[in-house]
Amino acid sequence: MALPPETPRPTVRTAGEATLTRESWKVFQIMAEFVEGFERLSCVRPAVSFFGSSRFGRDNPYYRLAEAISRELSDAGFSVISGGGPGIMEAANKGAYAGKSASVGLNIQLPHEQESNPYQDVALNFRHFFSRKVMFVKYASAYVVLPGGFGTLDELAEILTLVQTGKTRRIPVVLVGSTFWRGLIDWFRASLVGAGTISAGDLDLFTLVDNPHEVVDAIFSHYEQRGFEPSAEEQEILLQL
Length: 241
What we know:
This protein is of the alpha/beta class. It has a domain at 47-181 and 207-239: Rossmann fold. Helix content is 48%, strand content 13%. The protein has helices at 15-41, 61-75, 88-98, 129-138, 150-164, 178-195, 212-222, 232-239, and strands at 47-51, 79-82, 103-108, 122-126, 142-145, 173-176, 207-209. Strands 4-3-2-1-5-6-7 form a seven-stranded parallel sheet, with helices on both faces. Helix 2 (61-75) packs parallel to helix 3 and helix 2 (61-75) packs across helix 7 (212-222).
């Protein structure tokens, strides 16, 4: 039976339109992650962001080293920010939790390898890597990077790129574990500098150390002639991050 001519035909949404609507609404979820992160992390400065493998057990020497570094930084007045999961992330949170300053976990929902550790004074949960990565950079006065896998290398490359291109302020980037990192640094020098894809001066964007005292010294040395708070110019840079 035909519809009367005055009755409008029903609108049929295509699968593509339904997907677009769902993706558009995701914007509000992403916005909520940024708003909560900005509101809850604005009070943790000065802070140090930690990175390293989630696969190291508690008996691993790098786990114990990360815990010691974090405790020393926490007692020196730095909040510690980690990914909130196991391995080096747990060690960093554990050391800070036992110290005098806040222990912060930026937890991410993953199909595997990510369970929140119990050593967090401030715990945030993210679905999106990119909004989480902004929080690591925006509120960090320094980066401490221990041995890790693809995720650790991703975070290291991210901060080096942002500093190199002037998209964030210059902060100490401290690589811990010369035995682990030396081959990569040699490759940077031989292949990247050699091919002209980075400048020789870009190798000064990071420092290589082996013990907790060297980490603390590297960070304090960077800020010896200035305060930990971003300058007005740096605040503007971070606003555009």
